[in-house]
Amino acid sequence: MRSPPCADAAERQARFEAVYAANRALILGYALRRTANPDDAADILAETFLTAWRKLAEVPADDDARLWLYGVARRVLANYYRGERRRSALADRLRAELATRYQPPEYGSEHARIASALARLPEEQRELLALDAWEGLDYGQLAVVLGCSRNAVRIRLHRARARLTAELADISHRRDDIHA
Amino acid sequence: MPDIIDITQVAPVTDAQAARLASPAVFSDLARQITASPVPESAPRRMWSARHARSPRDLWSRRRAKQRALLLGGPLAVLAAVAALLVTVLTPGDNGPDSQAAIQAVSFIKDNGYITVIIRNLYADTSWYNADFARHHIDITLYLAPVPPSLVGYISSETGSGSRSEIKRIKRITKPGSCGVQGAGCQIGFTIPDDFHGQVDMWIGRPARPGEQYQVAGSAFNRGEPLYGLTDQIFEHPLSEVLPVLAQHHVTVAQCREEGVANAGSGICDPSNMPATWYISDVTPWAPNQVLLTIGPLPYPASGSIFTAGEPLAGLQDQIIGHPVSEVLPLFAQHNVTVIQCLAESADGQSTTSCDPSNMPATWYIRDVSTNGGNQVIVVIGQEKSVPGTGH
């Protein structure tokens, strides 16, 4: 479901700006929720959209662009996890602003426990739960972004949820033990 | 089954909040810098391999790079290069598009308002075909991609700028198994109306040469692959048991990826140093007799389709999906299939809860069946035949 190519540079620019305007906050949100680090999130945003600019003909139309962008952001994030943190000069101004405005979240005890349990999950399971709950993707969309079958999504999501429940129970018991 | 834990509250930030973390001017500034950067010449599209978004070796960009190197700067040089190209096309050379070799590789038949293209030799230089299309003012670019045996001869079309309705006017011709080991003697191709307008990229799978990496992966368990029929010896067994099986079938592990560790390390593991107690979650063809293994500390169910040839329920999909449990259980018994896990899908199709495989409601419908290795399956059931509105 590719979109038509751009007849000329101006059209290309306009198309990119439309995709950027519609999705920049979504990708920034995606990156911040996983890195909790405004510097890295700015770079991930910049690199994701730089890829979109270069491969604009591949970016699907409408809401599917969002899924395509999540896919790119995931790969950029994977590089980031591997230690390939590239500070992009493009994102300098954005980095500076985010640094002053972004506040790391402060959790009450219940949310802190949930966040803790989530952090204990293997990365793939955590990402699946996050895409489901934080980005609000349904099974079909998850299958597209993760590149697996819908059925695999169902089964893995079920397992991830069970694992989260188990981790949370474990944390709660430990906490109770300490206070007993 | 406990309530599903709601993790939305622990998201560090919402999209709406993210939007306000920088001023519009700063967001625009980033966009301006991005769009000021150069766009690479439209490179051939990377092939999407079955699961892993790794970068396949791209034969085409190497060839293009060679051609670019021949162009010296300046208008005169450009004219000279174009002239050279024209000469190549118009005069039959030993190895050009009009050469004997080219004519044997592809037949290009115009007949009654249609053009039929038959690829006879999967090792042919596709610049020949592409020159032919260009001559007929047809914007189709053909690529031949090295693929595993089960994908040889498979034709895929990706749209370029063509509309979907134009793409549908392409009729594929496939004769499975017609291509010999050397990629010759094929009877595959496609037919298009001669007023076809639109831009299409098509790729056709060709055999990989020894040592050549696959550009599209497919499944390691399809018929024709070295590991066909072996899912039950590979999934849910620790690596210490699986590696000998691979060796027995002359398959080497070229690449390793980890399913995911809490700290999200490199993700790339060393095939010669994989933990013996770990499990395989996926096997992806990498090159002839080489695979990429995805491994993790937990066992994973096999992900193949239970309905493909060679599997216990081959060909029975129509008698199972969308049928009530009461009808399907005898069919399972007949084929020695046991249900080891049951998932009950909610009405909106967005969540599942565990159900007891030995106690599934007889009037509920089977929505999906997937293999857990060997004769064990996981079934997904629902109260309705399918989720309303999805046909799934």
Question: Your description of this structure?
Answer:
The complex is a heterodimer of chains A (180) and B (392). With 180 residues, chain A is mainly alpha-helical. Chain A is 73% helix and 0% strand. Chain A is built from eight helices and no strands. Chain A has helices at 9-35, 38-54, 64-81, 92-101, 109-119, 123-133, 139-146, 150-179. Chain A is globular and about 65 Å long. The N and C termini of chain A lie far apart (59 Å). With 392 residues, chain B is α+β, with helices and mostly antiparallel strands. In chain B, 24% of the residues lie in helices and 26% in strands. Chain B is built from eleven helices and 15 strands. Chain B has helices at residues 15-19, 24-35, 59-70, 75-90, 100-105, 126-135, 164-167, 231-234, 239-248, 317-320, 325-334, and strands at 106-111, 114-121, 139-147, 155-159, 171-173, 184-193, 199-207, 252-258, 268-269, 279-287, 290-296, 338-345, 352-355, 365-371, 376-382. In chain B, strands 1-2-6-5 form a four-stranded antiparallel β-sheet. Chain B has a four-stranded mixed β-sheet with strand order 9-8-11-10, covered by helices on one side. In chain B, strand 14 (365-371) and strand 15 (376-382) form a beta hairpin. The longest helix of chain B has 16 residues, at 75-90. Chain B is globular and about 65 Å long. Chains A and B meet through helix 1, helix 2, helix 3, helix 4 and helix 5 of A and helix 1 and helix 2 of B.
In terms of per-residue confidence, which ranges of chain A show pLDDT below 50 for 5 or more consecutive residues?
A: none
| Structural class by secondary-structure content of chain A | mainly alpha
Oligomer: heterodimer
Residue stretches of chain B low in confidence (pLDDT < 50, at least 5 long) are: 42-94, 260-265
What global shape of chain A is seen?
globular
What pair of chains forms the biggest interface? Answer: A-B, 79 and 71 residues
User: What's the β-strand tally of chain A?
Assistant: 0
Mean pLDDT of chain A: 84
Helix content percent band of chain B? 10-25%
Number of strands of chain B: 15
The major beta sheet of chain A can be summarized as: none
Radius of gyration of chain A: 19 Å
Helix content of chain A: over 70%
- Helix and strand sequence of chain A: HHHHHHHH
SSE sequence of chain B, one letter per element = HHHHHEEHEEHEEEHHEEEEHHEEEE
